Amino acid sequence: MAKDIEGGRHGDIGLKDYYDPPPAPLVDPEELASWSFYRAIIAEFVATLLFLYVTVLTVIGYKNQSDPYHHGNECNGVGILGIAWAFGGMIFILVYCTAGISGGHINPAVTFGLFLARKVSLVRAVMYMAAQCGGAICGCGLVKLFQDIFYVRYGGGANELAPGYSIGTGLAAEIIGTFVLVYTVFSATDPKRNARDSHVPVLAPLPIGFSVFMVHLATIPITGTGINPARSLGAAVIYNQPQAWSDHWVFWAGPFIGATIAAFYHQFILRAGAVKALESFKSSSHI
Length: 287
Hints:
mainly alpha, single chain
């Protein structure tokens, strides 16, 4: 059983029962010359492409099967529950496949949160976000290529604010939903937690995928569930209709705000980053 010790004083040496990686530099020139850096970018591109391809196909398939004007009804298809499972299940699969290569972000909001926590460098964060957005656009492009008629008829899987909901409600839904996701990412990958719960074989992609599933159940009726700016951008670019762009900023502002709050909460509240920084400052001021 892991010791319940995060740090202490034994002389001037802090004791820890886990290894906390050092903060990532803002710019790391060495990673630009590393093949692993570009391999990680490719992995993020392909993973986001597959994510959008499967999930948007699921959304369009359900809308087609439940369309009363084309011999469908609400009991046909996978329903909202099935759509939520498609999104959560794909995140579980893709995070599991890419975690050892790129970290399995597949979402600019996740990348942004990890950047704020100094888990990735600025260059890596920007390149990841570009790869994720490019992959999302290509994934939606494949869906339209294979099902052009259904894609246009059923909205291309684009995120839109549902009738009856205000912009404030939609923004709040995206903020809270992304907070749940990014907070789960931090918790599932926390080295301190991994050390203390080493006797419990919890697979990190599982709670991450399950958080996506739960958030979709709650917010599909409100915004169609973004919580991933790349997902929203890819669908909007390929569908390219006014309704897909009218409130598109909500699907960027909400996730980025939610990721920021999650990063602050985990790093400075749960991990007591602010307290540790203050103690370090006080110690150095007495030298």
